[in-house]
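Title: Request for sanity check on 4-hydroxy-tetrahydrodipicolinate reductase prediction

Description:
We are preparing a figure and want to confirm that the structure record we downloaded matches what your pipeline produces today. Could someone re-run it with the sequence below and paste the raw structure tokens into this thread? We only need the token string, no images.
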Amino acid sequence: MTIESPIPVIVNGAGGKMGREVIKHVAESQDMILIGAVDINPNYLGKDIGELAGIKHLEIPVINDLESILITATQEKVQGVMVDFTHPNNMYNNIRSAIAYGVRPVVGTTGGLTKEQLKDLEEFADKASTGCLIIPNFSIGIVLLQKAAIEASKYFDDVEIIESHHNHKIDAPSGTAIQTAEILAESGKIYNVSCMEETETIKFSRGCLASNNIRVHSIRLPGLIAHQEVIFGSEGQVYTLRHDTSNRTCYMPGILLAIRQVTRLKSLVYGLEKIL
């Protein structure tokens, strides 16, 4: 019986809260091997990522040079995977660099890609025959919520989305909320057709308009992690779908699944539901 080589994994944004959690789970996975930890925060540079993540010493220092780690990954027997939880502004360049070196990106950073950039990355991944996964939310619960929302949208014409996150989240609305609105819009239905003209006495008090007239509201407060409500309404009733996270471990099964699945892909795939 042939034992397959473990998947080489790079974590970009390794010093962040999500990055540290990914480090823990990759280090514990028998079919994966951590080969690099990247973070631009000067407070983390040179520190052992295992100790920074609160686990054993891994003899892998945090560096701020993604390219050098990508080059290292090309020397491995098995094609490597880059897990990226960095700033949205760096998202496009990080993905393109990984694909250029033949390293497969698994990206949880949200809010950093325009439609034009996403199309460019799709074409680039196709030409390189390199798998790439961009996942707005790695929680299985969110996938189930979105599936339930699709079913509910067949019977309700009015819907709004409320997403709540910690006050260190940079982008708003969240990538998950945007994706949820896009999924609901795929039916072609125009939601929330009002019988009167609304007036906002304070700008954006009614939230932002996403796909097909769906309104999205964003809340940012300390004490929150990640939460989403999809609220449907009709005469005499309100139907609410809600997903809450209490810690970041809920994302880890989805992330580990994505690392394993991306090695089998030869193109860009958007959304966790596509690989379940």
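Thanks, this matches our download. The first strand starts at residue 7 and ends at 12.
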